[in-house]
Write a sequence for this structure.
């Protein structure tokens, strides 16, 4: 598949670094058309393409929005995501980290779905700290989990496959409306890591017998 990753911060670059090890073609999109991000990744031995937003989205089968929620809203209004699997990894946290911008009756993923109604929106990867992409996506020898929510079963299957390919353990989290619970979980994980002092070598895990 052709995968476009919009946003080249820690999360976007981390996802690019692991996805580039698969058979998929990876394009990084950023404010300078991904040039600096692609060059930096190349210095780390990671080969990806650089691209502008609109043509990269047109060419992509899967688009990953690795951008803050506010930026993601502007991005979905700028390009045509019709028919694309659109993965939202954001946690819509306020600028002062005091809470969530949306919740209870909606979620960032649902808001993006409303703005891009012809896209196949999937919530995933929002509980994985960026640091894990450089350390094997494991803790104590066990694969980290990612929780995947979507109203489109085929899109969910695509993202589930990608999660397995990069070494994560996918968990079906039901419909896209369950992003209302996954985003607070992501926020809680951030609180554990940065406010309560647990650090970033942590991750939520759903256990069952």
């Amino acid at each position: 598949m052709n995968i476009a990753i919009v946003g080249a911060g820690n999360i976007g670059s981390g996802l690019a670094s692991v996805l580039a090890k698969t058979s998929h073609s990876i394009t990084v999109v950023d404010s300078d058309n991904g040039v600096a991000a692609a060059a930096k990744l190349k210095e780390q031995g990671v080969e990806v393409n650089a691209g502008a937003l609109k043509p990269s989205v047109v060419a992509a089968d899967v688009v990953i929005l690795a951008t803050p929620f506010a930026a993601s809203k502007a991005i979905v209004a700028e390009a045509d995501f019709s028919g694309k699997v659109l993965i939202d990894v954001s946690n819509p946290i306020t600028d002062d980290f005091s809470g969530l911008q949306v919740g209870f009756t909606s979620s960032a993923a649902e808001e993006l779905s409303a703005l891009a109604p012809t896209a196949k929106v999937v919530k995933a990867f929002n509980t994985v700290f960026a640091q894990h992409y450089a350390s094997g996506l494991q803790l104590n020898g066990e694969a980290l989990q990612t929780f995947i929510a979507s109203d489109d079963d085929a899109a969910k299957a695509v993202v589930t496959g990608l999660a397995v390919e990069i070494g994560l353990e996918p968990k079906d989290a039901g419909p896209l409306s369950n992003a209302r619970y996954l985003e607070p979980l992501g926020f809680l994980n951030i609180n554990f890591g940065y406010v309560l002092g647990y650090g970033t070598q942590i991750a939520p895990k759903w256990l069952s017998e």
